[in-house]
């Protein structure tokens, strides 16, 4: 998901704003794209992707996000994703997760800032253990220990944790050495044309080996061709996401009937 950029580092808000969340001055919705368990032929999860009310791309929405409203936007995204996914019946799909992107620099105290998520899950009857939170690797993490604390709190609530866009952005193996999520999502820069690129294949093979030893599952992003799918399956990656399977859709869970 594209991300906002700021001239100055974001300074998290205090806990008082967790208790009195102000409304954003713009509206948005969510599109959902499936992550497919390819051998089993069914969705493993649906990722919630921010969109404008008229289908505008994420970039147009994120252009309205700044230091002053990042916290509110992050919280609103969680609640909106849970509300819409519940309304579309995602909780009725056996073992299928809802994946939500979050901004670690918008989380002041994990145990407090998670309240809106927990309350939304209760309100919309969505199981907490079916939530997966993705931290975008491109989101600059100023304090890795802070992110480690966020992930520890999320695990305590039964959430699945993930690093998105692995292999791009500010970090990679350094971030993985600090903490180990349940899932890493390989960026499309690593999966694109992997069937015809021995360098990418070698790099991905190394990541698979390390992840296996650490007990981490891998999702391959940006899969667009059958050849890429088959090459990734040959390497042992079973979870994939990309236009080969389905594009993000508003108001519908594509492939939910598989």
In short:
This protein has helices at 16-19, 58-62, 70-87, 110-113, 115-123, 144-156, 173-178, 188-191, 198-214, 226-235, and strands spanning 29-37, 42-51, 97-102, 131-136, 160-166, 183-186, 217-220, 239-240, 249-250. The protein is α/β, with parallel strands linked by helices.
SSE map:
Blueprint: H1 16-19, E1 29-37, E2 42-51, H2 58-62, H3 70-87, E3 97-102, H4 110-113, H5 115-123, E4 131-136, H6 144-156, E5 160-166, H7 173-178, E6 183-186, H8 188-191, H9 198-214, E7 217-220, H10 226-235, E8 239-240, E9 249-250
Parallel strand pairs: 2-3, 3-4, 4-5, 5-6, 6-7, 7-8
Antiparallel strand pairs: 1-2, 1-8, 1-9
Helix pairs in contact: 3-5
What does it look like?
This protein has about 260 residues and is an alpha/beta fold. The protein has one domain (about 25-250): TIM Barrel (Alpha-Beta Barrel), CATH 3.20.20. Helix content is about 35%, strand content about 20%. The protein is built from ten helices and nine strands. The chain has helices spanning about 15-20, 60, 70-85, 110-115, 115-125, 145-155, 175-180, 190, 200-215, 225-235; strands at about 30-35, 40-50, 95-100, 130-135, 160-165, 185, 215-220, 240, 250. The radius of gyration is 18 Å and the shape is globular.
């Amino acid at each position: 998901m594209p991300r906002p950029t700021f001239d100055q580092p974001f300074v998290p808000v205090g806990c008082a704003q967790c208790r009195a969340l102000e409304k954003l001055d713009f509206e948005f919705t969510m599109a959902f794209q499936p992550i497919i368990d390819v051998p089993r032929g069914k969705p493993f999860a649906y990722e919630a992707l921010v969109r404008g009310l008229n289908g505008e791309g994420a970039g147009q929405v994120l252009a309205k996000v700044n230091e002053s409203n990042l916290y509110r936007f992050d919280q609103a995204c969680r609640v909106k994703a849970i509300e819409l996914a519940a309304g579309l019946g995602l909780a009725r799909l056996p073992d299928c997760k809802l994946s939500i992107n979050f901004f670690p620099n918008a989380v002041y105290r994990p145990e407090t800032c998670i309240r809106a998520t927990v309350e939304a899950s209760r309100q919309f009857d969505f199981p907490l253990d079916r939530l997966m939170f993705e931290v975008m690797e491109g989101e600059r993490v100023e304090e890795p220990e802070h992110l480690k604390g966020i992930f520890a709190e999320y695990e305590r609530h039964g959430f699945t944790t993930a690093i998105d866009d692995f292999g791009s952005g500010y970090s990679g193996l350094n971030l993985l050495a600090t903490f180990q999520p349940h899932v890493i999502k390989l960026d499309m820069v690593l999966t694109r044309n992997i069937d015809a690129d021995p360098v990418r294949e070698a790099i991905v093979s190394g990541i698979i080996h390390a992840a296996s030893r650490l007990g981490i599952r891998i999702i391959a992003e940006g899969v667009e061709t059958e050849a890429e799918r088959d090459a990734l399956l040959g390497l042992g990656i079973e979870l994939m996401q990309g236009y080969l399977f389905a594009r993000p859709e508003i108001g519908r869970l594509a492939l939910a009937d598989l």
